[in-house]
Specification:
The chain is an alpha+beta fold. It has 8 helices and 10 strands.
Length: 297
C-alpha cells in the first residue's frame, strides 16, 4: 500500500517563492497542508479499514527515509549518527545540508511532545530548513527567523522545537551556529593530558515558541582532533531503575575518555554506557546523537 504523493511531497519551489516575496504565512500554509493531508490519511485508514497500525508503520518508514541514510562526505570531518524514537514516529530531528558555496548545514532538533503530532512538526521543520538552504545564502540569524515563522504558523500552538543549526566551512574549519534553546552541543578538545569541554550555548528561544523571536549567532573555530557531539535530551534524561538520569556530566566524562577514538567508536562508547545505565528501564523519550571528529588536512 502506497501513501498518496500529496502526503509525502512538499513543494520547495512554492515555499521558496513565497519566502522570497515575504509571504511567510503562505509558505506556512503550504507546510500545514502537508501535515493535515497526512493526518487525514491516518484518520481515513482507521475508519475505512481499521489498519491504523499498518499506516503508522508506513509513516515510520517515510519518516526514516527523510533522515540522511548515511553521513555525507564533508571534507575534514568524519561523523556517526544514532536515532531511536520511543514510538513508531519520533519528534527528534537531524540533518546535513549541502549549501551552495561548499559549506554544510548541520541541524539537530527536538520537537516538544511525541507521536504523530511531533512527527508532523518534524516534517515541517525539516522542510522549512531545507527550503531556506535552497535559497541564495542569507545571514544565519535571518534563516532562523524565517524558520521560526514557518514552524509557528504551520504548527499547533502547543508544539515548538529546540534547534541547533550550524554552517560549517571545511576550508577554514569555521563553524557559525545558532542554538535555539537546544541542549548545548559539546566540543571535546585534548590539550596535553587534559580534556577541555567547550559548550555551544543557546542564543535564542526554540523555533515556533514565540512570534517575533530573534537569534544571536556565534562562531567557533574547530581544530584537528576536536570531537563535536550534538544530542537530544532523551540521551541525558534517560533514567536507571532508581530514577537517576544519565546526565550531562556523565556524558562529558565518557567523551573525555574517548578523544583518541574515531567518531563511530565514540558513538559506540556512549551507547554502551547508556545501555548499561538504563538496563531494566524502558526508553521514555526519543534519542538522537550526532558525533563528528575533525581530521587533519
Amino acid at each position: 500500500m502506497n501513501i498518496p504523493t500529496q502526503a509525502q511531497t512538499i513543494s520547495y519551489e512554492d515555499i521558496i517563492e513565497a519566502l522570497d516575496k515575504g509571504h511567510h504565512r503562505k509558505a506556512a500554509l503550504l507546510l500545514r497542508n502537508q501535515a493535515e493531508s497526512f493526518a487525514q490519511l491516518l484518520e481515513r485508514s482507521e475508519v475505512e479499514s481499521g489498519s491504523l497500525h499498518r499506516e503508522l508503520e508506513i509513516a515510520r518508514d517515510v519518516q526514516k527515509a527523510s533522515f540522511p541514510a548515511h553521513c555525507p562526505a564533508i571534507p575534514g570531518l568524519t561523523c556517526a549518527t544514532f536515532y531511536k524514537p520511543v514510538h513508531s514516529l519520533g519528534g527528534d530531528y537531524y540533518d546535513f545540508l549541502p549549501l551552495q558555496d561548499g559549506a554544510w548545514g548541520i541541524a539537530v532538533g527536538d520537537v516538544s511532545g511525541k507521536g504523530i503530532g511531533a512527527a508532523l512538526v518534524v516534517a515541517t521543520l525539516q522542510a522549512s530548513l531545507r527550503a531556506q538552504t535552497l535559497r541564495p545564502r542569507s545571514r544565519i540569524e535571518t534563516l532562523m527567523k524565517n524558520v521560526n515563522h514557518l514552524v509557528r504558523e504551520s504548527s499547533p500552538a502547543e508544539f515548538f522545537a529546540s534547534l541547533f543549526y550550524a554552517e560549517y566551512r571545511p576550508a577554514s574549519r569555521l563553524l557559525r551556529y545558532v542554538n535555539a534553546g537546544h541542549n548545548p552541543p559539546m566540543v571535546m578538545r585534548r590539550s596535553g593530558s587534559r580534556c577541555k569541554v567547550l559548550l555551544l550555548n543557546p542564543g535564542g528561544a526554540p523555533v515556533g515558541a514565540l512570534q517575533d523571536s530573534t537569534y544571536i549567532s556565534a562562531t567557533f573555530l574547530l581544530e584537528p582532533g576536536d570531537i563535536l557531539v550534538a544530542y537530544t535530551d532523551g540521551i541525558t534524561e534517560s533514567e536507571n531503575v532508581d530514577g537517576d538520569c544519565f546526565g550531562q556530566d556523565r556524558l562529558e566524562r565518557i567523551l573525555c575518555n574517548c578523544t583518541a577514538r574515531d567518531s563511530q567508536e565514540v558513538l559506540q562508547c556512549i551507547l554502551n554506557e547508556l545501555s548499561a545505565h538504563s538496563l531494566g528501564r524502558s526508553q521514555a523519550d526519543d534519542m538522537t546523537l550526532v558525533v563528528m571528529r575533525v581530521e587533519a588536512k
